[in-house]
Amino acid sequence: MKKDRAKQAKLELMVGLFMFLILSALAYFTIILSFDNIFTKTYQIRVKFADVTGLITGDKVYVQGVDVGRVSVMTIERDGVVVELTLKYRLDLREDYEISVESSSVLGGKYVAIKQGSETQPKVSGDSLLKGTAPIDFITEASDAILAIRKALEEGGILKNLEISMANVRQLTEGLAEGRGTFGKLLYEDTLYNDFEAITKSLKNLTGTLERGEGTIGKLMQDETVYENFRAVSGDLAEITARLAAGEGTMGRLLSSDDTLYQDLASAVSSLEEVTGKVGAGEGSLGKMLTDDALYNELMSALNEVRAMVDDIRETSPFTTFGSLFLGAF
Fold it and tell me: 158-178 and 138-156 helices cross at what angle (nearest 10)?
């Protein structure tokens, strides 16, 4: 009997100990791990958002990436949502602060991100109603952007033109698939392949002919005589250019740095210019002949007299001949 009571007491003690452990764990998870720790001093700030888009009570609050609080209360108003944040620390907010609702992952979930602002700006009272930035709904934004692009395309007629272009492309591909047109025939007929094969064979025969040294081009490629002649011509040109560079010969002297021949030529040109100047000025016999009319008139008069004398001789030559024959008979 005593053994049964001891056993029952031991069992009750174990059950009580087990329940104590469960209650202790529950207290730990509800009080110690929970942000609403009755032994920790907290601070509340109120932020008004135009839209919170999925933010719920209990979501975390981060300041520079550090977990500092939770979303405790959300109140819906006519022009937005007032969110009360319970924080572990008092924040030193400045006028350029930023409070926004951010997405924690692509799978969902939100949190409140707070930037306290720069120290150069005046402080803001944490008791006042702060202004927050609504989260960006990427799906909604993308849908709105797509609708705006579609509307712009429809209004500008671009969408209609695109549909026409797609129809033309579809018609073109169908034609190609059916073998219509030039490109369709190129894709499905063997004529182009046969022609290309014939051209390839012709090129092969041509290269073989060149390799064997047949024909003019083949001889140029295989016969070294042309190369030797070209080499000889190159040597002669090199020798000629060397002689020109050395100032040999008339052309070489003209090209050399010695300007004696140039000076002689310039002197001759200067003398010729001086002579033509004197002639043009009427100096000397040639100048007077070219410019003085009196000499021209005298010359013409002398020529007229010579012509008259020749005419007289022609007229008297028969009598002179007859008299010479007559007197020669005696």
Answer: 80
> Do residues 27 and 111 lie in contact, with contact meaning Cβ atoms separated by under 8 Å?
no
Tell me the longest C-alpha to C-alpha distance in the chain.
222
Contacts for 42 with CB less than 8 Å, ≥ 6 apart:
35, 36, 69, 86, 87, 88
Which distant-in-sequence residues (6+ apart) come within 8 Å of 179 by Cβ?
Answer: 185, 187, 188, 189
Q: Are 80 and 50 in contact (CB under 8 A)?
A: yes
For residues 110-128, average pLDDT: 89
Q: Residue 169 — pLDDT band, cuts 50, 70, 90?
A: confident
Q: Among residues 87, 79, 83, which one has the least CA distance to residue 56?
A: 83
3-state secondary structure of 62: strand
Identify which has the larger pLDDT, 250 or 309: 309
Report which of residues 302 and 162 the model is more confident about: 302
Using 50, 70 and 90 to split pLDDT, how confident is the model at 41?
A: confident
Contacts of 221 (CB under 8 A, 6+ apart): 210, 213
Asked whether residue 254 carries a pLDDT value surpassing 60, the answer given is yes
Query: Nearest 5°: CA angle at 10, between 5 and 12?
Result: 95
Distances (CA, A) of 8 to 1, 4, 5, 13, 211: 11, 6, 5, 8, 114
For 107, 133, 137, 187, the CA distances from 53, given in Å and listed in that order, are 14, 11, 8, 57
Whole-model pTM: value is 0.36
Report d(CA 118, CA 223) in Å as an integer: 88
Instruction: Using CA atoms of 311, 313, 318, 321 in order, give the dihedral in degrees to the nearest 10.
Output: -160
**Closest by CA position to 134, among listed 109, 158, 102:** 102
128 and 153 Cβ atoms separated by less than 8 Å: no
Amino acid in the structure at residue 155 = E
pLDDT range class, residue 239, cuts 50, 70, 90: confident
